[in-house]
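Title: Request for sanity check on Adenosylcobinamide-GDP ribazoletransferase prediction

Description:
We are preparing a figure and want to confirm that the structure record we downloaded matches what your pipeline produces today. Could someone re-run it with the sequence below and paste the raw structure tokens into this thread? We only need the token string, no images.
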Amino acid sequence: MQDQRELVEHQAHAHPEEDRAHPRAEAIPPARHRAEAADDRQDDAGDDVVDVYAAGLDVAERALARADEPGDDARDHEGEHERGERQQQGQLPRLVDVPVPPVTHDPILRPDPARCPLCRTLRPVSKPENEPAYDSENEPENQPAPEPSETPETAQTSGTPWPDGLRFAFGTLTVFPVAVSRWDREAARAGMLCAPVAGLAVGLCAAVTGGLFLLLGAGPLLAAVATAAVPAVLTRGLHLDGLADTADGLGSGKPAADALRIMTQSDIGPFGVIALLFVLLAQVAALSQAYGASWTGGMFAAVVSATVARLALTLGARVATPAARPEGLGAAVAGTVPLRGALLVGAVVTAIGALLGAYDGMYGVVRGALAVLVACAAAELLLRHCVRRLGGVTGDVFGALAETAATTALVVLVLG
């Protein structure tokens, strides 16, 4: 076949003068040669070799059509190899590279589920036409970050929800029929800041009860017992129970995990009984002495002790105070109160104590302020011991803080 092709080419270029004088049609191989070429194409149907002279078709179109046809991987590989060799020898024309437009980089990407629901291929998002181009060289170094737009959720939680905080304080610390509408960290923070308000309400109820007993002719001791019983009733004995559980856990001398397990048990151990006994005896004795001096002194002591007891909860829930367990009231309120807010509430309660003590002159003012400060100091010592011993605070620890602060305040008020 190669000889036939050379013969055709020789005949086509043998007499160039005659060709210019008498133009003739392009030399076509005889019919016998065309039949042989057709047989060769049928034998090589699986290959990608294209006979230009026999096919009479455009080589580029045949190559593109064959590239799009599905076939065996081995045959496709052989066809690619042979096409590459023919292109190197110059027998087949090279395909012109299709110009690819430059891809502009756009840093803003988003998933396009319409393209591929499995891999969710990323595609660039078109920018608005009027948006200026980003120039990193001319960008100021100290440009402030844009402020996030305020949404209804951020607007709701950005400020302190004082109504929700009051409901949280009264709903969790007292038996007053108040429904807690929110149980999140923001409401817990506001509730702990409002805890002294709930203590003031409990103290007023206790003072009124003690004064009523005195008015009915009861002695100071009975009035003191009634006054001490009112806070226990209005809190469902929650703080006293926490005091007993904390005493059992700390008194066991076991590791933190075992001490916390002991604190969750429903029964009361010997350390809890001893702690309850001495605390209640100290409260009743101090109130009895205060009522014995004057009815105003007893009522003043009842109000200050109940208020400073809830102030200890506010100070105990300040930031950087960890929770010993991931659940419970302690985990809900631990670390929610900012230090500045806790100190501000402490200053307000101290001022109220001094103001209420003005009934007894300057001595009463100093006594009221001193009772608040010493009670907070005693609660702080217990708080640090519990954090060091248990690894954090729990609801029982908060109850122990409240009872410790109340008892200390009563003792300070009757001394001197």
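Thanks, this matches our download. The mean pLDDT is 75.
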